[in-house]
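=== RUN LOG ===
request id: a7f3
mode: sequence -> structure
chains: 1
length: 619
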Amino acid sequence: MFDIQEELKKLPEKPGVYLMKDAYDTIIYVGKAINLKNRVRQYFQNSRNHSPKTQKMVPQIREFEYIVTDSELEALILECNLIKKHRPKYNVLLKDDKNYPYIKVTVQEDFPRVFLTRSLMKDKAKYFGPYTDTGAVRETLELIHKIWPLRTCRRVLPRDIGKERPCLNYHIHQCKAPCAGYISSSDYVEMIEEVLDFLGGKYESVIEQLQGQMEAAAEELNFERAAEIRDQIQSVQRLDQKQKMIHASMEDQDVIAFAKEENEALAQVFFIRGGKLIGREHFLMDGVDEMTRKEIMNSFVKQFYAGTPFIPKEVILQEEIDEANIIQAWLSDKRGQRVYIKVPQKGEKSKLIDLAATNALLTLEQFGEKMKREQLRTKGALQELQEALGIEQELHRVEAFDISNTQGFESVGSMVVFEGGKPKRSDYRKFKIKYIVGPDDYGSMEEVLRRRFLRALEERKELAEKGFEMELGKFSTLPDLILMDGGKGQVNVAERVLMDLGLSIPVCGMVKDDRHRTRGLLYQNQEISLPMGTEGMKLVARIQDEAHRFAIEYHRKLRSKQQIQSVLDEIPGIGPVRRKALLQHFGSVEKIRQATLEEIQAVDTMNQKTAISVYDFFH
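=== RESULT ===
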Protein backbone atom coordinates (compact mmCIF):
# COMPACT_ATOMS: atom_id res chain seq x y z
CA MET A 1 0.00 0.00 0.00
CA PHE A 2 1.42 3.38 -1.04
CA ASP A 3 1.53 5.76 1.94
CA ILE A 4 1.69 9.28 0.45
CA GLN A 5 2.74 11.00 3.70
CA GLU A 6 5.56 8.53 4.28
CA GLU A 7 6.75 8.76 0.68
CA LEU A 8 6.77 12.58 0.86
CA LYS A 9 9.38 12.33 3.60
CA LYS A 10 11.67 10.33 1.31
CA LEU A 11 11.69 12.87 -1.52
CA PRO A 12 15.20 14.18 -2.36
CA GLU A 13 16.06 17.88 -2.52
CA LYS A 14 17.27 17.50 -6.11
CA PRO A 15 15.99 18.45 -9.57
CA GLY A 16 13.83 15.94 -11.41
CA VAL A 17 10.47 14.95 -12.80
CA TYR A 18 7.46 13.70 -10.84
CA LEU A 19 4.52 11.62 -12.10
CA MET A 20 1.12 11.58 -10.40
CA LYS A 21 -0.94 8.37 -10.72
CA ASP A 22 -4.59 7.54 -10.07
CA ALA A 23 -6.24 4.42 -8.64
CA TYR A 24 -5.81 2.62 -11.98
CA ASP A 25 -2.05 3.29 -12.00
CA THR A 26 -2.56 5.69 -14.91
CA ILE A 27 -0.29 8.73 -15.11
CA ILE A 28 -2.55 11.79 -14.82
CA TYR A 29 0.08 14.54 -14.50
CA VAL A 30 3.76 15.07 -15.25
CA GLY A 31 5.73 17.98 -13.82
CA LYS A 32 9.31 19.04 -13.25
CA ALA A 33 10.97 20.63 -10.26
CA ILE A 34 14.25 22.27 -9.27
CA ASN A 35 13.66 20.75 -5.82
CA LEU A 36 11.47 17.63 -5.87
CA LYS A 37 10.88 17.63 -2.10
CA ASN A 38 9.51 21.17 -1.99
CA ARG A 39 7.49 20.97 -5.20
CA VAL A 40 5.69 17.65 -4.67
CA ARG A 41 4.86 18.44 -1.03
CA GLN A 42 3.00 21.57 -2.16
CA TYR A 43 0.29 19.45 -3.81
CA PHE A 44 -0.70 17.89 -0.48
CA GLN A 45 -0.73 21.09 1.58
CA ASN A 46 -3.50 23.73 1.97
CA SER A 47 -5.71 23.45 -1.13
CA ARG A 48 -6.87 27.09 -0.94
CA ASN A 49 -3.70 28.13 -2.74
CA HIS A 50 -4.26 25.61 -5.54
CA SER A 51 -5.75 26.35 -8.94
CA PRO A 52 -9.17 24.76 -9.66
CA LYS A 53 -7.49 22.20 -11.90
CA THR A 54 -5.07 21.17 -9.14
CA GLN A 55 -7.91 21.02 -6.62
CA LYS A 56 -9.70 18.62 -8.96
CA MET A 57 -6.58 16.50 -9.60
CA VAL A 58 -5.18 16.03 -6.07
CA PRO A 59 -8.07 13.86 -4.69
CA GLN A 60 -7.44 11.42 -7.58
CA ILE A 61 -3.74 10.95 -6.76
CA ARG A 62 -3.10 7.55 -5.21
CA GLU A 63 0.65 7.46 -5.62
CA PHE A 64 3.51 9.28 -7.28
CA GLU A 65 6.88 8.44 -8.77
CA TYR A 66 9.88 10.62 -9.44
CA ILE A 67 13.02 10.54 -11.53
CA VAL A 68 16.07 12.47 -10.29
CA THR A 69 18.12 14.34 -12.91
CA ASP A 70 21.49 16.07 -12.80
CA SER A 71 20.12 19.47 -13.79
CA GLU A 72 16.97 21.48 -14.37
CA LEU A 73 17.68 21.31 -18.12
CA GLU A 74 17.64 17.50 -18.05
CA ALA A 75 14.39 17.65 -16.05
CA LEU A 76 12.84 19.93 -18.68
CA ILE A 77 13.77 17.56 -21.52
CA LEU A 78 12.49 14.51 -19.63
CA GLU A 79 9.24 16.32 -18.74
CA CYS A 80 8.59 17.16 -22.40
CA ASN A 81 9.26 13.59 -23.49
CA LEU A 82 7.03 12.04 -20.81
CA ILE A 83 4.12 14.43 -21.54
CA LYS A 84 4.35 13.55 -25.22
CA LYS A 85 4.59 9.83 -24.43
CA HIS A 86 1.82 9.49 -21.81
CA ARG A 87 -0.44 12.49 -22.64
CA PRO A 88 -1.67 12.92 -19.04
CA LYS A 89 -5.15 14.41 -18.81
CA TYR A 90 -4.21 17.17 -16.34
CA ASN A 91 -1.37 18.56 -18.43
CA VAL A 92 -2.07 21.17 -21.09
CA LEU A 93 -2.05 19.18 -24.34
CA LEU A 94 -1.69 20.13 -27.96
CA LYS A 95 -4.72 18.63 -29.67
CA ASP A 96 -2.96 18.68 -33.06
CA ASP A 97 -0.41 16.06 -34.05
CA LYS A 98 0.76 17.58 -37.29
CA ASN A 99 3.65 16.07 -39.19
CA TYR A 100 4.89 18.82 -41.44
CA PRO A 101 6.67 18.16 -44.70
CA TYR A 102 10.35 19.07 -44.85
CA ILE A 103 12.79 19.02 -47.73
CA LYS A 104 15.70 16.76 -46.82
CA VAL A 105 19.16 16.97 -48.37
CA THR A 106 21.30 13.96 -47.45
CA VAL A 107 24.58 15.90 -47.27
CA GLN A 108 26.12 13.08 -45.22
CA GLU A 109 26.18 10.92 -48.38
CA ASP A 110 28.87 11.08 -51.08
CA PHE A 111 26.16 11.66 -53.70
CA PRO A 112 23.34 13.40 -51.79
CA ARG A 113 19.62 13.12 -52.59
CA VAL A 114 16.90 15.76 -52.22
CA PHE A 115 13.37 14.67 -51.30
CA LEU A 116 10.27 15.35 -49.18
CA THR A 117 10.10 13.74 -45.76
CA ARG A 118 7.98 13.80 -42.62
CA SER A 119 10.31 11.55 -40.66
CA LEU A 120 13.06 13.59 -39.07
CA MET A 121 16.17 11.94 -37.69
CA LYS A 122 19.50 12.95 -36.22
CA ASP A 123 21.39 11.73 -39.27
CA LYS A 124 23.48 14.83 -40.16
CA ALA A 125 21.23 15.56 -43.15
CA LYS A 126 20.00 19.13 -43.75
CA TYR A 127 16.27 19.80 -43.36
CA PHE A 128 14.44 22.80 -44.81
CA GLY A 129 11.04 23.80 -43.48
CA PRO A 130 8.61 23.19 -41.94
CA TYR A 131 6.29 23.83 -44.87
CA THR A 132 2.53 24.04 -44.38
CA ASP A 133 1.67 23.48 -48.04
CA THR A 134 2.63 20.01 -49.28
CA GLY A 135 1.71 20.97 -52.84
CA ALA A 136 4.21 23.84 -52.75
CA VAL A 137 6.91 21.46 -51.49
CA ARG A 138 6.30 19.06 -54.37
CA GLU A 139 6.36 21.96 -56.82
CA THR A 140 9.70 23.12 -55.39
CA LEU A 141 11.18 19.62 -55.61
CA GLU A 142 9.99 19.25 -59.19
CA LEU A 143 11.70 22.54 -60.06
CA ILE A 144 14.92 21.46 -58.32
CA HIS A 145 15.08 18.22 -60.30
CA LYS A 146 14.46 20.10 -63.56
CA ILE A 147 17.34 22.49 -62.92
CA TRP A 148 19.79 20.08 -61.28
CA PRO A 149 19.96 16.47 -62.59
CA LEU A 150 20.24 14.79 -59.18
CA ARG A 151 19.77 11.14 -58.43
CA THR A 152 16.50 9.93 -56.87
CA CYS A 153 17.45 6.26 -56.40
CA ARG A 154 18.25 4.58 -53.07
CA ARG A 155 21.47 2.92 -54.23
CA VAL A 156 24.35 3.04 -51.77
CA LEU A 157 27.10 5.04 -53.48
CA PRO A 158 29.99 4.76 -54.07
CA ARG A 159 29.67 1.10 -52.99
CA ASP A 160 27.25 0.23 -55.82
CA ILE A 161 28.92 2.23 -58.62
CA GLY A 162 29.05 0.18 -61.82
CA LYS A 163 26.93 -2.70 -60.51
CA GLU A 164 23.89 -1.81 -62.62
CA ARG A 165 23.15 0.14 -65.77
CA PRO A 166 21.88 3.73 -65.44
CA CYS A 167 18.11 4.03 -65.04
CA LEU A 168 15.65 5.86 -67.29
CA ASN A 169 16.32 9.22 -65.60
CA TYR A 170 19.82 9.28 -67.12
CA HIS A 171 18.49 8.71 -70.63
CA ILE A 172 15.96 11.53 -70.32
CA HIS A 173 18.66 13.87 -68.93
CA GLN A 174 17.26 14.09 -65.41
CA CYS A 175 20.22 12.40 -63.71
CA LYS A 176 23.99 12.44 -64.28
CA ALA A 177 24.21 8.71 -63.41
CA PRO A 178 26.65 8.75 -60.47
CA CYS A 179 25.68 5.06 -60.11
CA ALA A 180 27.64 4.37 -63.29
CA GLY A 181 30.53 6.70 -62.45
CA TYR A 182 29.54 9.26 -65.12
CA ILE A 183 30.01 12.22 -62.72
CA SER A 184 32.64 12.78 -60.05
CA SER A 185 31.76 13.33 -56.42
CA SER A 186 33.19 16.88 -56.49
CA ASP A 187 31.11 17.91 -59.53
CA TYR A 188 28.00 16.38 -57.98
CA VAL A 189 28.58 18.15 -54.65
CA GLU A 190 28.93 21.43 -56.57
CA MET A 191 25.34 20.95 -57.78
CA ILE A 192 24.23 20.18 -54.22
CA GLU A 193 25.81 23.42 -52.97
CA GLU A 194 23.73 25.33 -55.52
CA VAL A 195 20.59 23.48 -54.36
CA LEU A 196 21.35 24.39 -50.73
CA ASP A 197 21.68 28.07 -51.71
CA PHE A 198 18.38 27.83 -53.58
CA LEU A 199 16.57 26.25 -50.63
CA GLY A 200 18.10 28.90 -48.41
CA GLY A 201 16.31 31.58 -50.45
CA LYS A 202 19.27 32.74 -52.58
CA TYR A 203 17.26 32.84 -55.80
CA GLU A 204 19.23 35.65 -57.46
CA SER A 205 22.37 33.56 -58.01
CA VAL A 206 20.25 30.70 -59.39
CA ILE A 207 18.49 33.04 -61.81
CA GLU A 208 21.85 34.49 -62.96
CA GLN A 209 23.21 30.99 -63.55
CA LEU A 210 20.14 29.97 -65.56
CA GLN A 211 20.23 33.15 -67.61
CA GLY A 212 23.83 32.37 -68.55
CA GLN A 213 22.81 28.85 -69.63
CA MET A 214 19.86 30.23 -71.62
CA GLU A 215 22.06 32.71 -73.49
CA ALA A 216 24.63 30.00 -74.23
CA ALA A 217 21.91 27.72 -75.60
CA ALA A 218 20.55 30.55 -77.76
CA GLU A 219 24.02 31.29 -79.18
CA GLU A 220 24.32 27.62 -80.14
CA LEU A 221 20.90 27.95 -81.85
CA ASN A 222 19.47 25.39 -79.43
CA PHE A 223 16.25 27.35 -79.06
CA GLU A 224 14.28 24.44 -77.61
CA ARG A 225 16.75 24.16 -74.72
CA ALA A 226 16.75 27.94 -74.28
CA ALA A 227 12.96 27.94 -74.01
CA GLU A 228 13.10 25.21 -71.32
CA ILE A 229 15.59 27.26 -69.30
CA ARG A 230 13.44 30.39 -69.75
CA ASP A 231 10.47 28.51 -68.21
CA GLN A 232 12.67 27.42 -65.30
CA ILE A 233 13.71 31.04 -64.67
CA GLN A 234 10.06 32.10 -64.60
CA SER A 235 9.25 29.33 -62.12
CA VAL A 236 12.05 30.50 -59.78
CA GLN A 237 10.84 34.11 -60.07
CA ARG A 238 7.26 33.09 -59.21
CA LEU A 239 8.54 31.15 -56.18
CA ASP A 240 10.52 34.21 -55.08
CA GLN A 241 7.45 36.43 -55.36
CA LYS A 242 5.29 34.03 -53.31
CA GLN A 243 7.61 34.31 -50.33
CA LYS A 244 7.09 37.82 -48.99
CA MET A 245 10.13 39.48 -47.38
CA ILE A 246 8.98 40.59 -43.95
CA HIS A 247 12.25 41.15 -42.10
CA ALA A 248 15.49 42.63 -43.36
CA SER A 249 17.62 40.65 -40.89
CA MET A 250 17.35 37.51 -43.10
CA GLU A 251 17.10 35.42 -39.90
CA ASP A 252 15.19 32.20 -39.22
CA GLN A 253 12.39 33.03 -36.78
CA ASP A 254 9.22 31.55 -35.31
CA VAL A 255 6.60 34.07 -34.21
CA ILE A 256 4.11 32.70 -31.66
CA ALA A 257 0.91 34.27 -30.32
CA PHE A 258 -2.38 32.80 -29.09
CA ALA A 259 -6.02 33.54 -28.32
CA LYS A 260 -7.96 31.98 -25.41
CA GLU A 261 -11.62 31.20 -24.85
CA GLU A 262 -12.86 29.20 -21.83
CA ASN A 263 -11.10 25.80 -21.85
CA GLU A 264 -9.64 26.19 -25.36
CA ALA A 265 -6.71 28.16 -26.68
CA LEU A 266 -5.41 28.49 -30.22
CA ALA A 267 -1.77 29.29 -30.92
CA GLN A 268 -0.69 30.78 -34.24
CA VAL A 269 2.88 30.21 -35.43
CA PHE A 270 4.46 32.13 -38.30
CA PHE A 271 7.46 30.35 -39.86
CA ILE A 272 10.01 32.87 -41.13
CA ARG A 273 13.03 31.48 -42.93
CA GLY A 274 15.75 33.71 -44.32
CA GLY A 275 13.61 36.76 -43.58
CA LYS A 276 10.69 35.40 -45.62
CA LEU A 277 7.36 34.11 -44.40
CA ILE A 278 7.14 30.55 -45.76
CA GLY A 279 4.00 29.47 -43.92
CA ARG A 280 1.83 29.66 -40.84
CA GLU A 281 -0.06 27.12 -38.79
CA HIS A 282 -2.46 27.04 -35.85
CA PHE A 283 -2.54 24.62 -32.92
CA LEU A 284 -5.43 23.91 -30.57
CA MET A 285 -4.71 23.45 -26.88
CA ASP A 286 -6.98 21.72 -24.40
CA GLY A 287 -7.24 22.04 -20.62
CA VAL A 288 -6.26 25.72 -20.31
CA ASP A 289 -9.09 26.88 -18.04
CA GLU A 290 -7.94 28.78 -14.96
CA MET A 291 -4.41 29.04 -16.41
CA THR A 292 -2.57 32.33 -16.81
CA ARG A 293 -1.45 33.44 -20.26
CA LYS A 294 2.15 33.00 -19.12
CA GLU A 295 1.47 29.36 -18.15
CA ILE A 296 -0.28 28.65 -21.46
CA MET A 297 2.60 30.06 -23.49
CA ASN A 298 5.12 28.17 -21.36
CA SER A 299 3.32 24.83 -21.94
CA PHE A 300 2.90 25.45 -25.66
CA VAL A 301 6.55 26.31 -26.29
CA LYS A 302 7.78 23.20 -24.46
CA GLN A 303 5.41 20.81 -26.25
CA PHE A 304 5.79 22.40 -29.68
CA TYR A 305 9.59 22.33 -29.71
CA ALA A 306 9.70 18.86 -28.17
CA GLY A 307 8.10 17.61 -31.39
CA THR A 308 9.82 19.65 -34.11
CA PRO A 309 13.43 19.11 -35.19
CA PHE A 310 14.04 22.54 -36.73
CA ILE A 311 14.86 25.23 -34.18
CA PRO A 312 15.16 28.79 -35.55
CA LYS A 313 17.68 31.32 -34.34
CA GLU A 314 14.95 33.46 -32.77
CA VAL A 315 11.69 32.52 -31.06
CA ILE A 316 9.50 35.62 -30.79
CA LEU A 317 6.74 35.28 -28.17
CA GLN A 318 3.62 37.24 -27.35
CA GLU A 319 4.00 36.55 -23.59
CA GLU A 320 6.85 36.27 -21.12
CA ILE A 321 7.49 32.75 -19.82
CA ASP A 322 8.76 31.72 -16.39
CA GLU A 323 11.39 29.31 -17.63
CA ALA A 324 12.83 31.45 -20.42
CA ASN A 325 16.49 30.88 -19.53
CA ILE A 326 16.25 27.11 -19.17
CA ILE A 327 14.08 26.75 -22.31
CA GLN A 328 16.50 28.97 -24.24
CA ALA A 329 19.38 26.71 -23.15
CA TRP A 330 17.38 23.63 -24.19
CA LEU A 331 16.60 25.05 -27.64
CA SER A 332 20.22 26.14 -28.10
CA ASP A 333 21.33 22.60 -27.31
CA LYS A 334 18.85 21.17 -29.85
CA ARG A 335 19.90 23.64 -32.56
CA GLY A 336 23.63 23.39 -31.87
CA GLN A 337 23.84 27.19 -31.88
CA ARG A 338 22.66 29.98 -29.62
CA VAL A 339 18.88 30.53 -29.72
CA TYR A 340 17.25 33.72 -28.48
CA ILE A 341 13.77 33.99 -26.95
CA LYS A 342 12.36 37.51 -27.28
CA VAL A 343 9.15 39.23 -26.20
CA PRO A 344 9.15 42.51 -28.18
CA GLN A 345 7.23 45.57 -26.99
CA LYS A 346 7.75 47.76 -30.04
CA GLY A 347 9.23 47.78 -33.51
CA GLU A 348 8.91 45.33 -36.43
CA LYS A 349 8.91 42.21 -34.27
CA SER A 350 6.09 43.60 -32.15
CA LYS A 351 4.05 44.15 -35.33
CA LEU A 352 4.64 40.52 -36.27
CA ILE A 353 3.31 39.44 -32.86
CA ASP A 354 0.24 41.64 -33.36
CA LEU A 355 -0.35 40.05 -36.77
CA ALA A 356 -0.02 36.52 -35.36
CA ALA A 357 -2.34 37.40 -32.43
CA THR A 358 -4.98 38.81 -34.80
CA ASN A 359 -4.82 35.66 -36.92
CA ALA A 360 -5.09 33.48 -33.80
CA LEU A 361 -8.23 35.34 -32.67
CA LEU A 362 -9.84 35.17 -36.11
CA THR A 363 -9.08 31.46 -36.42
CA LEU A 364 -10.42 30.75 -32.93
CA GLU A 365 -13.63 32.62 -33.78
CA GLN A 366 -13.87 30.73 -37.06
CA PHE A 367 -13.54 27.37 -35.31
CA GLY A 368 -15.17 28.42 -32.06
CA GLU A 369 -18.69 27.19 -32.76
CA LYS A 370 -17.38 24.03 -34.38
CA MET A 371 -15.18 23.37 -31.35
CA LYS A 372 -18.12 23.93 -28.98
CA ARG A 373 -20.30 21.50 -30.91
CA GLU A 374 -17.49 18.95 -30.91
CA GLN A 375 -17.01 19.51 -27.17
CA LEU A 376 -20.69 18.78 -26.50
CA ARG A 377 -20.62 15.75 -28.77
CA THR A 378 -17.57 14.20 -27.09
CA LYS A 379 -16.55 15.39 -23.64
CA GLY A 380 -19.99 16.84 -22.96
CA ALA A 381 -21.55 13.45 -23.77
CA LEU A 382 -19.12 11.71 -21.39
CA GLN A 383 -20.04 14.17 -18.65
CA GLU A 384 -23.74 13.40 -19.24
CA LEU A 385 -23.00 9.69 -18.83
CA GLN A 386 -20.96 10.29 -15.69
CA GLU A 387 -23.76 12.32 -14.10
CA ALA A 388 -26.50 9.88 -15.16
CA LEU A 389 -24.59 6.94 -13.65
CA GLY A 390 -23.51 8.83 -10.56
CA ILE A 391 -19.83 7.91 -11.04
CA GLU A 392 -17.25 10.05 -9.22
CA GLN A 393 -14.34 9.10 -11.48
CA GLU A 394 -14.12 11.39 -14.50
CA LEU A 395 -14.81 9.41 -17.68
CA HIS A 396 -12.13 9.55 -20.36
CA ARG A 397 -11.57 6.05 -21.76
CA VAL A 398 -14.56 3.83 -22.52
CA GLU A 399 -14.23 0.25 -23.83
CA ALA A 400 -17.12 -1.68 -25.37
CA PHE A 401 -17.26 -5.43 -26.08
CA ASP A 402 -19.39 -7.52 -28.44
CA ILE A 403 -19.57 -11.15 -29.61
CA SER A 404 -20.46 -12.28 -33.13
CA ASN A 405 -21.11 -15.81 -34.45
CA THR A 406 -23.34 -17.75 -36.82
CA GLN A 407 -24.85 -20.66 -34.93
CA GLY A 408 -21.60 -21.03 -33.04
CA PHE A 409 -19.46 -20.91 -36.20
CA GLU A 410 -16.19 -18.97 -35.79
CA SER A 411 -17.22 -17.00 -32.69
CA VAL A 412 -15.28 -13.74 -32.40
CA GLY A 413 -15.13 -10.89 -29.93
CA SER A 414 -14.50 -7.21 -30.50
CA MET A 415 -13.16 -4.47 -28.25
CA VAL A 416 -13.61 -0.88 -29.37
CA VAL A 417 -12.15 2.08 -27.52
CA PHE A 418 -13.38 5.67 -27.23
CA GLU A 419 -11.18 8.28 -25.58
CA GLY A 420 -12.48 11.77 -24.93
CA GLY A 421 -15.70 10.76 -26.68
CA LYS A 422 -13.92 9.85 -29.93
CA PRO A 423 -13.00 6.43 -31.35
CA LYS A 424 -9.36 5.47 -30.81
CA ARG A 425 -9.02 2.88 -33.56
CA SER A 426 -5.37 2.15 -32.86
CA ASP A 427 -6.50 0.51 -29.59
CA TYR A 428 -9.29 -1.62 -31.13
CA ARG A 429 -8.72 -5.33 -30.64
CA LYS A 430 -10.13 -8.53 -32.17
CA PHE A 431 -10.42 -11.85 -30.32
CA LYS A 432 -10.88 -15.20 -32.03
CA ILE A 433 -12.61 -17.45 -29.49
CA LYS A 434 -10.24 -20.31 -28.61
CA TYR A 435 -11.72 -22.22 -25.71
CA ILE A 436 -15.52 -22.06 -26.07
CA VAL A 437 -17.28 -24.47 -28.45
CA GLY A 438 -20.72 -23.72 -29.84
CA PRO A 439 -23.05 -20.70 -29.60
CA ASP A 440 -22.22 -19.67 -26.01
CA ASP A 441 -22.17 -15.87 -25.94
CA TYR A 442 -21.67 -15.67 -22.17
CA GLY A 443 -18.76 -18.10 -22.22
CA SER A 444 -17.25 -16.34 -25.23
CA MET A 445 -17.54 -12.95 -23.56
CA GLU A 446 -15.92 -14.25 -20.37
CA GLU A 447 -12.99 -15.57 -22.41
CA VAL A 448 -12.56 -12.23 -24.21
CA LEU A 449 -12.66 -10.21 -20.98
CA ARG A 450 -10.27 -12.52 -19.14
CA ARG A 451 -7.78 -12.41 -21.98
CA ARG A 452 -8.04 -8.62 -22.24
CA PHE A 453 -7.60 -7.85 -18.52
CA LEU A 454 -5.10 -10.61 -17.76
CA ARG A 455 -2.96 -9.12 -20.52
CA ALA A 456 -3.37 -5.71 -18.84
CA LEU A 457 -2.13 -7.03 -15.52
CA GLU A 458 0.82 -8.80 -17.20
CA GLU A 459 1.82 -5.61 -19.03
CA ARG A 460 1.54 -3.54 -15.86
CA LYS A 461 3.71 -6.01 -13.98
CA GLU A 462 6.30 -5.86 -16.74
CA LEU A 463 6.06 -2.07 -16.76
CA ALA A 464 6.68 -1.94 -13.01
CA GLU A 465 9.73 -4.20 -13.40
CA LYS A 466 11.23 -2.24 -16.29
CA GLY A 467 10.28 1.23 -15.10
CA PHE A 468 10.08 3.82 -17.85
CA GLU A 469 12.06 1.84 -20.38
CA MET A 470 8.74 0.41 -21.50
CA GLU A 471 5.85 2.52 -22.77
CA LEU A 472 2.35 1.99 -21.40
CA GLY A 473 0.88 -0.65 -23.71
CA LYS A 474 -2.45 -0.82 -25.51
CA PHE A 475 -3.79 -3.35 -23.03
CA SER A 476 -2.27 -1.91 -19.86
CA THR A 477 -4.26 1.32 -20.19
CA LEU A 478 -7.43 0.51 -18.25
CA PRO A 479 -10.85 1.98 -19.06
CA ASP A 480 -12.87 4.30 -16.83
CA LEU A 481 -16.08 2.57 -17.98
CA ILE A 482 -16.91 -0.77 -19.66
CA LEU A 483 -19.96 -1.07 -21.93
CA MET A 484 -21.36 -4.51 -22.77
CA ASP A 485 -23.49 -5.15 -25.84
CA GLY A 486 -26.20 -6.97 -23.90
CA GLY A 487 -28.26 -7.01 -20.74
CA LYS A 488 -27.92 -8.29 -17.20
CA GLY A 489 -26.24 -11.60 -18.13
CA GLN A 490 -23.34 -9.97 -19.97
CA VAL A 491 -22.92 -7.38 -17.22
CA ASN A 492 -22.74 -10.14 -14.59
CA VAL A 493 -20.08 -11.94 -16.65
CA ALA A 494 -17.96 -8.79 -16.82
CA GLU A 495 -18.34 -7.98 -13.11
CA ARG A 496 -17.38 -11.56 -12.18
CA VAL A 497 -14.20 -11.42 -14.31
CA LEU A 498 -13.18 -8.05 -12.83
CA MET A 499 -13.80 -9.29 -9.29
CA ASP A 500 -11.70 -12.42 -9.91
CA LEU A 501 -8.83 -10.24 -11.16
CA GLY A 502 -9.11 -7.67 -8.37
CA LEU A 503 -10.13 -4.80 -10.66
CA SER A 504 -12.78 -2.19 -9.88
CA ILE A 505 -14.21 -0.68 -13.08
CA PRO A 506 -17.87 0.37 -13.60
CA VAL A 507 -19.75 -1.91 -16.03
CA CYS A 508 -22.92 -1.05 -17.95
CA GLY A 509 -25.06 -3.04 -20.34
CA MET A 510 -26.31 -1.27 -23.48
CA VAL A 511 -30.01 -2.09 -23.68
CA LYS A 512 -32.02 -1.98 -26.92
CA ASP A 513 -35.77 -1.61 -27.46
CA ASP A 514 -38.11 -3.78 -29.58
CA ARG A 515 -37.00 -1.89 -32.71
CA HIS A 516 -33.35 -2.72 -31.97
CA ARG A 517 -32.51 0.88 -31.03
CA THR A 518 -30.37 1.76 -28.00
CA ARG A 519 -32.76 2.87 -25.25
CA GLY A 520 -30.59 3.09 -22.13
CA LEU A 521 -27.97 1.59 -19.85
CA LEU A 522 -28.17 -1.17 -17.26
CA TYR A 523 -26.01 -0.22 -14.27
CA GLN A 524 -25.97 -1.84 -10.82
CA ASN A 525 -29.16 -3.81 -11.65
CA GLN A 526 -31.05 -0.64 -12.58
CA GLU A 527 -31.94 0.62 -16.03
CA ILE A 528 -30.70 4.19 -16.49
CA SER A 529 -32.77 6.00 -19.09
CA LEU A 530 -31.09 8.75 -21.05
CA PRO A 531 -33.47 11.05 -22.95
CA MET A 532 -33.47 10.32 -26.67
CA GLY A 533 -31.59 12.92 -28.67
CA THR A 534 -29.19 13.89 -25.90
CA GLU A 535 -25.47 13.81 -26.65
CA GLY A 536 -24.91 11.13 -23.99
CA MET A 537 -27.50 8.86 -25.62
CA LYS A 538 -26.06 9.49 -29.08
CA LEU A 539 -22.58 8.59 -27.82
CA VAL A 540 -23.79 5.29 -26.34
CA ALA A 541 -25.52 4.45 -29.64
CA ARG A 542 -22.34 5.26 -31.61
CA ILE A 543 -20.24 3.08 -29.32
CA GLN A 544 -22.70 0.18 -29.54
CA ASP A 545 -22.92 0.41 -33.34
CA GLU A 546 -19.14 0.56 -33.61
CA ALA A 547 -18.62 -2.51 -31.39
CA HIS A 548 -21.18 -4.45 -33.42
CA ARG A 549 -19.74 -3.32 -36.76
CA PHE A 550 -16.20 -4.22 -35.76
CA ALA A 551 -17.20 -7.70 -34.55
CA ILE A 552 -19.28 -8.43 -37.66
CA GLU A 553 -16.51 -7.20 -39.96
CA TYR A 554 -13.95 -9.52 -38.33
CA HIS A 555 -16.38 -12.43 -38.35
CA ARG A 556 -17.12 -12.02 -42.06
CA LYS A 557 -13.42 -11.92 -42.83
CA LEU A 558 -12.77 -15.16 -40.95
CA ARG A 559 -15.83 -16.83 -42.45
CA SER A 560 -14.79 -15.86 -45.97
CA LYS A 561 -11.27 -17.14 -45.36
CA GLN A 562 -12.64 -20.40 -43.92
CA GLN A 563 -14.89 -20.91 -46.94
CA ILE A 564 -12.00 -20.52 -49.35
CA GLN A 565 -9.80 -22.84 -47.36
CA SER A 566 -12.50 -25.47 -46.85
CA VAL A 567 -13.08 -25.85 -50.62
CA LEU A 568 -9.42 -26.24 -51.55
CA ASP A 569 -8.53 -28.32 -48.50
CA GLU A 570 -10.95 -31.02 -49.65
CA ILE A 571 -8.77 -31.71 -52.73
CA PRO A 572 -6.31 -34.61 -52.27
CA GLY A 573 -2.69 -33.43 -52.40
CA ILE A 574 -3.47 -29.75 -51.74
CA GLY A 575 -1.81 -28.37 -48.61
CA PRO A 576 -1.10 -24.81 -47.49
CA VAL A 577 1.76 -24.23 -49.97
CA ARG A 578 -0.11 -25.41 -53.07
CA ARG A 579 -3.35 -23.73 -51.94
CA LYS A 580 -1.48 -20.41 -51.68
CA ALA A 581 0.19 -20.95 -55.07
CA LEU A 582 -3.17 -21.66 -56.74
CA LEU A 583 -4.84 -18.58 -55.24
CA GLN A 584 -1.90 -16.33 -56.13
CA HIS A 585 -1.85 -17.62 -59.70
CA PHE A 586 -5.59 -17.54 -60.45
CA GLY A 587 -6.83 -14.95 -57.95
CA SER A 588 -10.00 -16.78 -56.88
CA VAL A 589 -11.57 -20.22 -56.44
CA GLU A 590 -13.97 -19.51 -59.32
CA LYS A 591 -11.07 -18.95 -61.75
CA ILE A 592 -9.46 -22.20 -60.58
CA ARG A 593 -12.77 -23.91 -61.35
CA GLN A 594 -12.74 -22.47 -64.90
CA ALA A 595 -9.06 -23.32 -65.61
CA THR A 596 -7.96 -26.06 -68.01
CA LEU A 597 -5.79 -28.98 -66.90
CA GLU A 598 -2.80 -27.45 -68.71
CA GLU A 599 -3.29 -24.08 -66.96
CA ILE A 600 -3.45 -25.74 -63.54
CA GLN A 601 -0.36 -27.82 -64.28
CA ALA A 602 1.54 -24.61 -65.14
CA VAL A 603 1.25 -23.35 -61.55
CA ASP A 604 4.41 -23.46 -59.44
CA THR A 605 4.66 -26.46 -57.05
CA MET A 606 2.02 -28.44 -59.06
CA ASN A 607 2.84 -31.83 -60.58
CA GLN A 608 0.70 -33.73 -63.07
CA LYS A 609 -0.99 -35.97 -60.48
CA THR A 610 -2.02 -33.06 -58.24
CA ALA A 611 -3.16 -30.95 -61.21
CA ILE A 612 -5.44 -33.81 -62.29
CA SER A 613 -6.84 -33.99 -58.74
CA VAL A 614 -7.70 -30.28 -58.83
CA TYR A 615 -9.24 -30.46 -62.29
CA ASP A 616 -11.27 -33.60 -61.48
CA PHE A 617 -12.51 -32.07 -58.20
CA PHE A 618 -14.15 -29.14 -60.00
CA HIS A 619 -15.38 -31.15 -63.00
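=== NOTES ===
The first helix runs from residue 4 to 9.
Residues 14 and 35 are 5 Å apart (CA to CA).
=== END ===
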